[in-house]
Write a structure and sequence with these properties.
The chain is an alpha+beta fold. Helices cover 17% and strands 30% of the residues. The protein contains 1 helix and 3 strands; from the N terminus they run βββα.
């Protein structure tokens, strides 16, 4: 039996959760709610299956080439990161 190990901490314990995955390519985006991901129970490292990522990529290109319709559209506010300057003591 082939047991998988976390590549970061070597743990064998994982849990599957569902997340909102944001895919980006050439300044275009696709938000994919309910994306399955395995999380290492020890360190929190995320693992996506290749088949899930391939499906997301396929959907992205189909939607952005107008061969498929998105389920929904959302507006997302943006804010550029501005570092906080620490005051010298």
């Amino acid at each position: 039996m082939n047991t998988k190990h976390c590549s970061y901490c070597d743990s064998e314990e994982y849990r599957e959760i569902r997340i909102d995955y944001l895919y980006k390519h050439n300044d275009k985006y696709l938000l994919v709610p309910n994306t399955p991901v395995e999380i290492c129970s020890t360190c929190g490292m995320s693992y996506y299956s290749a088949s899930v990522l391939k499906q997301i990529e396929k959907q992205f290109f189909a939607i952005h080439s107008n061969n498929e319709r998105a389920d929904n559209y959302v507006n997302i506010p943006t804010k550029y990161f501005e570092p906080i300057l620490e005051l010298a003591a």
